[in-house]
Write a structure and sequence with these properties.
Layout lengths: L3 E5 L7 H11 L8 E5 L1 H4 L6 H17 L8 E4 L5 H10 L4 H5 L2 H7 L8 H15 L5 E3 L5 H18 L8 E3 L34 H10 L18 H14 L3 H8 L4 H27 L2 H30 L6
Parallel strand pairs: 1-2, 2-3, 4-5
Helix pairs in contact: 3-12, 4-7, 4-13, 7-8, 9-12, 10-11, 10-12
The structure holds tryptophanyl-5'AMP.
Length: about 325
């Protein structure tokens, strides 16, 4: 089976979007050293993070991944900054990727906003480090949400150019795995924006740590339109908020939106939202409880991450050392 790599930024608590679009798909892919999951703290600081909060957010992110079902004994779970191979290869990739390629990245444009001159240079070259995260392990299967598609295409361009420039077949081709009906969960306040940990409005997202009352309140307040739930897919057309809520219920219930419409079609949003709240609370409460339990013993989470970093480094170090040799660096010993 192909080696799996994926990452998540500790720039906040994981959202329902992270969970349905990515984390939930990681759980069945656990396969010892062939599956690596990384809390990418170096990516997080491309936008300023409060230093007092970053370390605890990193630990909390790891705890929530474990609470969602990742088992540090059945996969490699670790923190990006603990494995220097990522930045070593990231630097080489900064020298492979072209400015023109990075200029096309839509996520940079979104995140930098209007004042692009004020964005950090790290935010700009971020996709190069992301390519290094994956290729330092020669990983080929990358389960992510839809918003990462463009970054993975860039990673393939970088791998190909490296191979071409140095006349080798060293880096493999990456296959994006964009899975399920919830590869793009949208904001609860605006069906045209993705649900995001960094959205200023907490009402726009469900956090995996939200309690039952908070989930109920956010769903009841979620933006909708005046029509009832349709009974067929065409009825969701041009109704982004309705489509989003139906998609969330389908994903959380492990079924297809078609089946949800068959059951719920004709209901008003009031009644539909109560069904959605119940499904979300049933599914997410045990995760939040487990996360709380894990964080009662932060030392145990840190120990698991340190073990993970050693296993990750054992895989990445020889691959990155070989990349450095191919580039022509004098071996350190
Ligand atoms: P991040 O931290 O923004 O998100 C982590 C994962 O969650 C997915 N996701 C979503 N899926 C569906 N709907 C949403 N609203 C939603 N929001 C987020 C993301 O697609 C992602 O899979 N660049 C990455 C982290 C990263 C990475 C990597 C991923 C760094 N290196 C190497 C894969 C391989 C990011 O910022 O994810």
């Amino acid at each position: 089976m192909a080696r799996v790599f994926s990452g998540i930024q500790p720039s906040g608590v994981p959202t329902l979007g992270n969970y349905l679009g990515a984390i939930r798909n990681w759980v069945p892919m656990q396969n010892g050293d062939e599956s690596l999951f990384c809390v990418v703290d170096q990516h997080a600081i491309t936008v300023f993070q409060n230093p007092g909060e970053l370390a605890s957010a990193t630990r909390e992110m790891a705890a929530s991944l474990i609470a969602c079902g990742l088992d540090p004994d059945r996969c490699v779970l670790f923190v990006q900054s603990h494995v220097p191979a990522h930045v070593r290869l990231g630097w080489i990739f900064n020298c492979i990727a072209r400015l023109g390629w990075l200029n096309r990245m839509t996520q940079f444009k979104d995140k930098a906003g209007k004042d692009r001159e004020a964005a950090s240079t790290g935010l700009y070259v971020y996709p190069n480090l992301m390519a290094a995260d994956i290729l330092a392990y020669h990983a080929t299967s990358v389960p992510v949400g839809d918003d990462q598609r463009q970054h993975l295409e860039l990673a393939n361009d970088i791998a190909q150019k490296f191979n071409h420039d140095y006349g080798v077949e060293f880096f493999p081709r990456i296959e994006p795995m964009i899975l399920g009906v919830a590869a793009r969960v949208m904001s609860l306040r605006d069906g045209s924006k993705k649900m995001s940990k960094s959205d200023p409005s907490d009402q726009s997202r469900i956090n995996l740590t939200d309690d039952a009352d908070t989930i109920a309140l956010k769903i009841r307040r979620a933006k909708t339109d005046a029509e009832p739930i349709p009974d067929h897919m065409a009825g969701l057309e041009a109704r982004p908020e309705a489509r989003n809520l139906v998609g969330i219920l389908a994903a959380i219930s492990g079924t297809l939106p078609e089946n949800i419409l068959r059951e719920q079609g004709g209901k008003g949003f009031g009644a539909f939202k109560e069904v959605l709240v119940e499904a979300l609370v049933d599914h997410l409460s045990p995760i939040a409880a487990e996360m709380k339990r894990l964080l009662n013993d932060p030392g145990a989470v840190d120990a698991a991450l340190h073990k993970g970093a050693a296993r990750a480094a054992a895989i990445a170090d020889p691959i990155v050392a070989e990349a450095e040799r191919l580039v022509g660096f004098l071996p350190p010993r």
